Amino acid sequence: MTNSTWVEAGRMAGHRIFTTSFASIYPLYVQKAERKNRTQDEVDRVLTWLTGYDDAAMQQAIADEVDLETFFAQAPGLNPNASLITGVICGYRVEEIEDPLMQQIRYMDKLVDELARGKKMASILRGSDTSVD
User: Fold this and answer.
1) pLDDT tens track of the chain, all 133 residues?
2) Residues near 116 by Cβ (< 8 Å), separated by ≥ 6?
3) Helices 100-116/22-35 angle, 10° precision
4) Most CB atoms within 10 A, among 23, 26, 67, 127?
5) Which stretches of 13-129 are DSSP H helices?
6) Bridge partners, residue 21, by sequence
């Protein structure tokens, strides 16, 4: 089974990651970053860059315990530079994942991974303006 076939099969079967709450993975992202001397603010910055959420809306999504499918469906807009995110996460090349929702989730994983690995914010945000909105 190819990577894309696996992802498609997972979507048809209602892959469990889609119903996982954003509230359950957000603290794991923060912990991962903080273990590598990065901050919660930096995690928030990469997540708001990707999704278009502002801090208040992202905190509301956490409080409402929305699942990842809803989190991305209600996102103001995926950053146009998200397609520049490449590389391997969870054993799959993010640029080759065919299911849009799975790809967005893996983009999020990849950005947090890059943050934890010490990449510069300008690189993580694919050259976008790194100032706070």
Assistant:
1) 444 444 444 444 568 999 999 999 999 999 999 999 999 999 999 999 999 999 999 999 999 999 999 999 999 999 999 999 999 988 889 999 999 999 999 999 999 999 999 999 999 999 875 554 3
2) 32, 33, 35, 36, 38
3) 20
4) 26
5) 22-35, 40-51, 55-63, 68-73, 100-116, 121-124
6) 67
Copy the structure tokens of residue 55.
């801090």
Token reading at 90: 């969870």
Domain boundaries, the chain: 3-124
**Angle, helices 55-63/22-35, rounded to nearest 10 degrees:** 120
**Which fold would CATH assign to domain 3-124?**
Helicase, Ruva Protein; domain 3 (1.10.8)
Q: Which amino acid is at 69?
A: E
What residues form DSSP beta bridges with 88?
93
CB distance 50 to 83 below 8 Å: no
Integer Cα distance of 123 and 105 in angstroms = 19
Sign (positive/negative) of CA torsion 36, 38, 42, 44? positive
